[in-house]
């Protein structure tokens, strides 16, 4: 039998692959249709898939408290996706995804420190690397025209993702799919309200619907794998490993979209990813 900590690592890395691909596909889709429409489809995908998984794995309904944490996760997750996708349309996909991931890691670590004590020295070094990475990414140079306004959505997405991770960690150890299914309900309500208020939001074009659905499948897979990682091991390990997803997003953006980053920005990306690894040791 595979040890639980090893399962947490495997599930966390798998979540990173799924979320990284989902962030890239979702960001690409928002260049052809509304970000709100893309996120809405991801929630609908979850509403369909999660109950099916619950029945397939014979999962019982958890206590009401766990379902409420699922509702919180849905709100934070959907809002975070909207902020991330909009940030991608306003700037480079690789920078937006990396900055959001670093902030999304720091929030659960602060939560863990308050509840479980001061982090180890390696985790503190990881914090330092994270701040170096953020500074290198956002600092202006000849190869970048980043402004403070360009950081609003990535930072917001990071905070919301951090709260999303914390909410999922509070699920029952014996229930994953039902809380995740419930998480999609408030998210769907919120997104539907946004769409009704925004008159310029259009439905996904027929030529992009498959791309939007693919983003939804990747996002659903990432949430499932992260919940499994969080159940199998510690929150910080699950969060940090799954937050390696920007490496996948950056690779896809560079290969498929030919995005070019300045050397200083690449240093920031590498420092951010090194921070995630150091914090996980």
Which helices and strands, and how do they pair?
Blueprint: H1 4-29, H2 35-56, H3 64-90, H4 93-116, H5 121-138, H6 152-169, H7 177-197, H8 209-232, H9 235-242, H10 245-256, H11 263-280
Helix pairs in contact: 1-3, 1-8, 1-9, 1-10, 2-3, 2-7, 2-8, 3-4, 3-6, 3-7, 4-5, 4-6, 4-9, 4-10, 4-11, 5-11, 8-9, 9-11
Helices, by number, come to 11
Sheet of most strands: none
Number of domains: 1
Helix content: over 70%
* Span of the ends, CA to CA: 23 Å
Characterise the protein shown here:
By secondary structure, the chain is mainly alpha-helical. The chain contains eleven helices and no strands. The chain has helices spanning 4-29, 35-56, 64-90, 93-116, 121-138, 152-169, 177-197, 209-232, 235-242, 245-256, 263-280. Helix 4 (93-116) runs antiparallel to helix 5, helix 4 (93-116) packs across helix 6 (152-169) and helix 4 (93-116) packs parallel to helix 11. The longest helix is centred in the first third of the chain and has 27 residues, at 64-90.
Task: Summarize this structure as a short list of keywords or feature phrases.
about 280 residues; mainly alpha; about 80% helix; about 0% strand; globular
In short:
This protein has 281 residues and is mainly α. Helix content is 78%, strand content 0%.
